[in-house]
From TrEMBL:
Residue ranges constituting the Glycosyl hydrolases family 39 N-terminal catalytic domain according to the UniProt record: 109-542
Signal peptide per UniProt: 1-25
Protein name: Beta-xylosidase
Family according to the record: Belongs to the glycosyl hydrolase 39 family.
Organism: Echinicola arenosa
Keywords linked to the UniProt accession: Glycosidase, Hydrolase, Signal
SUPFAM superfamilies: (Trans)glycosidases, Glycosyl hydrolase domain
Keyword Signal: yes
Length: 581
């Protein structure tokens, strides 16, 4: 193959290029085509572990778990991962007239009271949810919440009936309030954990993570921060009494990039390290891991979806920085309890046009590029990054490709799920990747530049994440831009170095308009809302991860190899090399 030693060039100077970046809504320059991008992958230079931080999912509607499409998707998610997937769901303790699901709603009736005010525990629905996970080798990331009606300090009104387009604040009702009796709440938590130990066994429950509530710095918690801290102390004490080796964490605050949110996260961490425990009266509280949330913020500009990955990375950056500032907590695992391009999974494209990125490949390329930068930020702060929860599941019995933030629609996988199939093939050690711009006077995107400016210039973010294990090498390559506009495919040259000389089986997987993309096939069918059985079969097949070309044997002479390809805008490739023994 003929090697092209051409780099990206700017149509303006580096200074003026930086000035076109903006996280505050300035217009970007027109996106131009570029010459060949050279990505040098050095397999002999280890930079860290390829930990499966992506193997975490979550969703608002817990009753979808055991429904038809919910079970199907959970099976697929469990099968794409070589490690147990952790699953977090809201509303596991919520009360309703009958357990039922609706957008941003779910219930289990785990706790009610008789006429004398005595507790009545019914674990049947919670068990049905956790059984669905455990049967598939998954782990509950067990969220303790929300407040049962019988315990709420303000029980009426309790249930919401939110619909897309309505004000978000309408969901915050009686389930979001502190308990009227902290001792009864603690006993509920104790009984739940003990029941799980009896049902699933001590060793299994020891492998779970338990956490309290969701986003207590905004409307999900209708009490004060100090009341949340009090609830945490009662909850953590109850969990540890039921199973001393159980793992408990928090606070699941959102948006640490905002000063007010950062203040709440610090207030919580100050308490667990130095505060007086509300239950024991001693200093500090049990804390086995730390959680916070990070979200981007897309918008619509002249009919074009414009993402803001920078905002999400700023949240992650600040959260990592805060944890790293506590010497006694720095080594605790960090779980980004929700980590997404924006904040409302149930807000469909029809009612929120800026969410039009969700059905196609923009969600795929965003996911690839953002997860790579999460690794970089964790490396920068030296923190123990355990996982990032993708808050996107499925919405039962909704319109086809309605533009919810989900992994599948009516049982058909969206392109974004195939990025996680790619991640599932990557393990071992992360290795060094150099963009051609790293060795020139040009500018390559990295975690810090995207954190500060997002991807708003006239050049896309073309880069890679690479890993090596004992028997295989993997390179994930993406072509991402915040503006979802058409652009020519970019020529890319992968310069692979540090290989052991010998033969390798090369497999090239691709997500783009023509590959691994049920959405484009559905549109080509005429966007049917009642597809035939044959059409559904075709869509299911199209939703799987495709090989771009047939597998082929290559020979790495003198420990190097060059692979050239063209990658469309918002496309993602995975190159997998398996060495012949």
């Amino acid at each position: 193959m003929k090697r092209l030693y051409l780099f990206f060039f700017f149509v303006v100077t580096t200074l003026s290029f930086l000035n076109t970046f903006s996280s505050c809504g300035q217009s970007a320059l027109p996106i131009t085509s570029a010459d060949t991008v050279i990505l040098q992958v050095n397999f002999d230079k280890i930079i860290g572990e390829m930990d499966p931080v992506w193997a975490w999912w979550g969703y608002d509607e817990p009753n979808y778990t055991y429904m038809k499409d919910g079970q199907k998707l959970l099976t697929e998610i469990s099968q794409l991962s070589p490690v147990p997937v952790n699953v977090r769901a809201h509303s596991l303790l919520v009360t309703d007239e009958g357990p039922r699901a609706a957008l941003k709603w779910g219930s289990t009736n785990a706790y009610t009271e008789d006429e004398q005010g005595n507790p009545v525990y019914d674990w049947s629905i919670v068990d049905k949810i956790f059984d669905t996970y455990v049967e598939r080798g998954m782990k509950p990331f067990a969220q303790i919440g929300f407040m049962p009606k019988a315990l709420s300090s303000k029980p009426d009104p309790y249930r919401h009936h939110w619909k897309p387009g309505a004000k978000y604040e309408e969901i915050y009702r009686g389930w979001a309030y502190p308990p009227k009796d902290y001792e009864k709440w603690a006993e509920l938590v104790f009984q739940w954990v003990r029941h799980c130990v009896d049902r699933y066994g001590k060793e299994e429950v020891e492998s779970w993570c338990w956490e309290l509530w969701n986003e207590p710095n905004i409307g999900y918690w209708q009490g004060t921060t100090e009341e949340y801290i009090k609830l945490y102390d009662y909850t953590a004490d109850a969990v540890k009494r039921a199973l001393p080796t159980a793992k408990i964490g928090g606070p699941e605050t959102t948006g640490p990039g905002h000063p007010d949110a950062a203040k709440v996260l610090k207030q919580f961490l100050d308490h667990v390290t130095e505060g007086t425990n509300y239950v024991t009266g001693k200093q500090g509280s049990p804390l086995d891991f730390i959680t916070f949330h990070a979200k981007g913020s897309p918008r619509l500009e002249d009919g074009v979806v414009v993402m803001d990955m920078g905002r999400q990375l700023r949240d992650i950056d600040k959260g990592f920085e805060i944890v790293a500032s506590y010497p006694t907590l720095k080594d605790l695992p960090i779980i980004i309890g929700e980590s997404d391009p924006e904040g409302c999974a149930a807000c469909s494209e029809a009612d929120y046009p800026h969410n039009a990125y969700r059905n196609g490949t923009m969600y795929s390329s965003y996911t690839a590029a953002s997860f790579a930068r999460k690794y970089q930020l964790a490396d920068h702060y030296g923190v123990n990054f355990l996982g990032a929860v993708t808050w996107g599941f499925e919405f039962e019995d909704q319109a086809w490709f309605a533009g919810f933030r989900d992994m599948a629609t009516n049982g058909v996988d969206k392109p974004v799920l195939n990025v996680f199939r790619m991640f599932g093939m990557m393990d071992g050690k992360r290795v060094q990747v150099l963009n051609g711009a790293d060795n020139s006077d040009q500018l390559a995107y990295d975690a810090m530049s995207i954190r500060d400016h997002s991807v708003r210039g006239n050049l896309p973010d073309i880069n890679a994440l690479a890993a090596k294990s004992e028997d295989q090498l993997t390179i994930m390559v993406w072509n991402y831009h915040d503006r979802n506009e058409m652009a020519p495919a970019s020529p890319i040259s992968l310069d692979l170095k540090g290989l052991e000389p010998g033969k390798y089986l090369l497999e090239h997987f691709r997500i783009d308009k023509e590959n691994s993309n049920a959405y484009e096939l559905w549109k080509a069918m005429g966007s049917p809302q009642s597809p035939s059985a044959e059409q559904i079969h075709q869509l299911e097949n199209a939703g799987q991860l495709d090989l771009l070309t047939s597998p082929q044997w290559i020979y790495a002479k003198e420990g190097s190899f060059q692979l050239d390809m063209a990658l469309p805008r918002q496309g993602v490739s995975l190159i997998k090399l398996t060495r012949k023994p």
